[in-house]
Amino acid sequence: MRFDAEWIRELLEGAPGRDELASKLTACGFNVEVREPDGDSEIWDVDVTTNRPDAMNHRGLAREAAVACGARLKPLEPGLEESGEAASDLVSVEIEAPELCGRYVARVVRGVRMAESPQWLAQRLERCGIRPINAIVDATNYVLMELGQPLHAFDLARVAGRRIVVRRAGQGETLTTLDGEKRALDPSHLVIADETHALALAGIMGGADSEIGGDTADVLIESAYFDPLTIRRGARTLGMHTEASHRFERGADPEMAPVAADVAAALIARLAGGTVCSGRVDVNPRPFRSAALELDTEKLGAFAGLEISVDESVRILEGLGFAPRVENGLVHVHVPSWRVDIERVQDLYEEIIRHVGYDAVPARLPVLPAVPGQRRGHWPLVDRARDAAVSVGLAEVVTYSFISPEQDEAASALPLVTAGPVTLDNPLARTQAIMRRSLLPGLAAAARLNLNQGETDLALFEEGRVFVLADGKPAEGERLGILLSGRTGPWDRREAVSFGDLKGLVEAIVERTGFPALTWKRDAAGALDEAEGAVLLGPGGRPAGYAGLLGTQVASKWELRQPVYVAELDLDRALAEVPLPHFHDLPRFPAVIADMTVEHPASLAYADLEAAVGRLASPLVERVELVVRYSGKGIEPGSVRTTLRVVYRHRERSLTQDEVNAEQEALRGRLASELNVRFA
């Protein structure tokens, strides 16, 4: 940002030379990057960070220089002389959108005559990169450069009804701005209007219909405070960037509006003649309230690693406009209206330390007490889930939380997607307009990228958060997603991935993560293949996940050209419903294993068969495992042979083979009676 060095020095009593001034400003955080001689002054290019709009003007930078150099900032003296005619008799102001315009001040100067600006003023504007136009417009730009308050001058005769209305633009309303462009507006834009039409884009640029011209006799000066976000969005959607929008969108000083109007009115009367009408029209629906903070200098010293006295802290804060007072060993301050970046006491630490000097901070880390850390909340579960996925051979991927509306629609029918989407108001791109409600879109996109690069054997997982609207408010949830595709198995016996491979991985992860017992129920789940899809049900029959082959219609949305198996687990459900672990002594007696081959209709799901075995088996059965399922040659159409491995164990003694045979035979009988199955 360009500054006139002599202009800064002119605002200081006891100002140092340019070299010292540039050095001190750089040391306190305002890097003077370029110094270019220009006549009796220098043009400085100063790096002012975006969080410091208060320093984007000569007076604001001079305030910093006064504290850094031990000088004194001269008081602001508008030198205003008013006539007997009241401004309120000539113009009225109404704010229809107080949430977008917190304050609007109007001043009137009558009887002006068009003239060029004097050389000293034109030269200062040119050093700041602003082209002189005429004395009236130049006066408003001069005040902007000195005080940081954007202003606009209207030809009062062109304001219909002499009434200013600050309102949202109408849908389809248009405005030709000072640059000659016709702008199409909508209600997201804020405009300054009169009784009939829009006169200016608030905080961005004036309109051509009310600009100052050669026949202008009466000037209406606008000095306002606009909502930063509204100005930022408006300037972005219209592709505009001006000196005014640059400041408004970073946060202007609401208390500077009336002061700047006075200074500009006095300067216009001085340069272009005319008289300043008495009083201001000041509409202030949202008065500024200063935040109060308490500074403990002992804590400040401990933070900085050096001793900073109360007197030194008070000197710095007073020079920066914080009006400090010491009471009970604490420094009480009120944040000035121009410091939009100060929110908490740690921000005061920075203000004091940078003016004490960063070089004074010792180059060593402070000694802090070491306290053992502990990960709380859902993090232990997240770690277990991630470790479980890695332990079964999956590679982790990390994808974006933002997806397109089409991707969200493709995943909307999944059983875990039970609430509405979180839509971004201002997305970076249309393809990132919605926050994901499932991990499926990210995993599918990762699969497509790998397949396009020739990587056809995929075993991926992602642990991450999903986002939904719950009771009208955004809510988050932890999920674990899995994707398999291509081939799997040893290098010499590679086979195509199947539903069984996916099920085995999911069950291993479920067991190692600590989920409650889950039931597999055949279900297409909205996005899965009808023949190879399942919903995982937790206690009470509530969905805790899904698994299966991605349906052809959904897979085509990501251009997946080979079968892809996916699964997703709701980790929050595990956290809420996981039972406390029960520990038992290690078994002292051997187990006896007996296999059982059941021939049953293909419509009988394995989950139902396994549940029946668990319900009908004797207490001696420790666990039941799937060995193989077979259908085809030698089996009746529509039937399946499932071989189960039943593990028997007695906690107090060894079992005999006869006992196991008897239990096995009894189990067959119960199953045949209840499920109408046969045994091979």
Question: How would you describe what is shown here?
Answer:
There is one protein chain. With 680 residues, the protein is α+β, with helices and mostly antiparallel strands. It folds into 5 domains: 72 residues, 2-Layer Sandwich (Phenylalanyl-tRNA Synthetase, Chain B, domain 1); 202 residues, Phenylalanyl-tRNA Synthetase, Chain B, domain 3 (3-Layer(bba) Sandwich); 69 residues, Phenylalanyl-tRNA Synthetase, Chain B, domain 1 (2-Layer Sandwich); 199 residues, 2-Layer Sandwich (BirA Bifunctional Protein, domain 2); 88 residues, Alpha-Beta Plaits. The strands form 10 sheets. Strands 22-26-27-33-32-31-30 form a 7-stranded mixed sheet, with helices on both faces. Strands 6, 8, 9, 16, 17 and 18 form a 6-stranded mixed sheet that branches. A 5-stranded mixed sheet has the order 7-10-13-14-15. Helix 4 packs across helix 5, helix 12 packs antiparallel against helix 15 and helix 18 crosses helix 19.
